[in-house]
Amino acid sequence: MKVAIVGKGGVGKTTVAGTLARMLADDGYRVMAIDADPDANLASALGCVPEIARAITPIADMKDFIRERTGSGEGFGGVFKLNPKVDDIPDKFSRDVEGVKFLVMGSLDTGGTGCLCPENIVLRRFLEEVLEYREETVILDMEAGLEHLGRGTARAVDLLIIVVEPGQRSIETARAIMKLATDLGIQSMRLVMNKVVDKADADLLTQNFKADQILGYISYDRELMRLDREGQAPYDFFRNTDTSFFNEMKEIKGKVIDLIAEGVKGQPH
Ligand SMILES: Nc1ncnc2c1ncn2[C@@H]1O[C@H](COP(=O)(O)OP(=O)(O)OP(=O)(O)O)[C@@H](O)[C@H]1O
Ligand SMILES: [Mg+2]
Question: Which residues line ligand 1 (CB under 6 A)?
Fold first, then answer.
């Protein structure tokens, strides 16, 4: 089960990714959560204490490792391997956070994610490895763009969850993401509207998308902002409570499992 979570900045991707990963782990799934957002902050949403979160070195910053694997740095402008060995990264560099294998990809200093620099080659190969070859359930917390995903790798994503909030801007971003994802060959995508306050908010989603494109709704809850401020995982606070957030996330998690089990039929277009 490979799930990628995308959406406009601040819509709640990390909140959803961290909670979904913890819920699936509690259900007995072997879960790997990957922070693929250059502005990484999945650690605290998963339940990682700040001291440990700060000590995690993103893969992009493992200069010696990248040099060793790609053979780069051996002279200015030197050639390097385009197909470095990366299959040991998940086990070697992941941390256990409350039963979830956690990895941070990090960001590139220069050239953006499109460049053919050694760091980028390693990051792309790493994503390819976890999406195409690993057995675990993978939850990817991404940025709005799908930069890290090449064509082959994108096709390995079983489900793209696009998070929106009540407003035209994040819905426009969702449309752009859907187009890009379709071009990349991602078959299955569903929307989640977060920060819902009233029916007018929810209606915005049904007015813009078909019912079978919608995965669920999450209510606005100020506690989530407090938890973020204090660096606490939503799941550790809400787990097993009879709250909207917990019940709605549980419903979303159930639908994700069902969709993947059926091979995500009825693709939206
Ligand atoms: N349902 C909600 N109700 C109220 N606040 C929320 C809700 N969901 C998320 N938030 C808050 O909104 C802020 C952004 O959430 P989050 O970090 O999950 O979004 P993001 O999409 O990952 O952001 P970024 O683009 O910066 O990575 C956080 O302070 C979070 O606590
Ligand atoms: Mg985030």
Answer: 7, 9-15, 37, 39, 194-195, 218, 220-221, 224-225, 228
Write the residue with the smallest CA distance to atom 9 of ligand 1. 12
Q: What's the gap in Å between 14 CA and the centre of ligand 2?
A: 4
For 62-111, write each residue's pLDDT tens digit.
Answer: 999 999 999 886 655 667 788 899 999 999 999 999 999 999 999 876 55
Give the residue, by CA position, lying nearest to ligand 1 atom 30: 225
Residues in the chain: 269
In a domain, 236, yes or no: yes
Task: Say if pTM beats, i.e. exceeds, 0.90.
Answer: yes
pLDDT tens column, 23-34: 999 999 999 999
- Tokens 């929106």 locate to 164
**What residue owns the CA closest to ligand 1's atom 25?**
9
Quick check: helix, strand or coil at residue 40? coil
Determine, yes or no, domain membership for 143.
yes
Position 251: which residue type?
Answer: E
Amino acid at 94: S
Query: Is residue 212 assigned to a domain?
Result: yes
8 A C-beta contact, residue 98 and residue 234: no
Neighbours of ion ligand 2 (CB under 5 A): 13-14
Sign of the torsion formed by the C-alpha atoms of 103, 160, 146 and 150: positive
* Count of structural domains, the chain: 1
User: CB neighbours of 172 closer than 8 A, spacing ≥ 6?
Assistant: none
Domain limits at 211?
A: 2-261
Q: Name residues of the chain where pLDDT drops below 50.
A: 266, 268-269
CATH number of residue 168's parent domain: 3.40.50.300
Distance from the CA of 150 to the center of ligand 1, in angstroms? Answer: 27
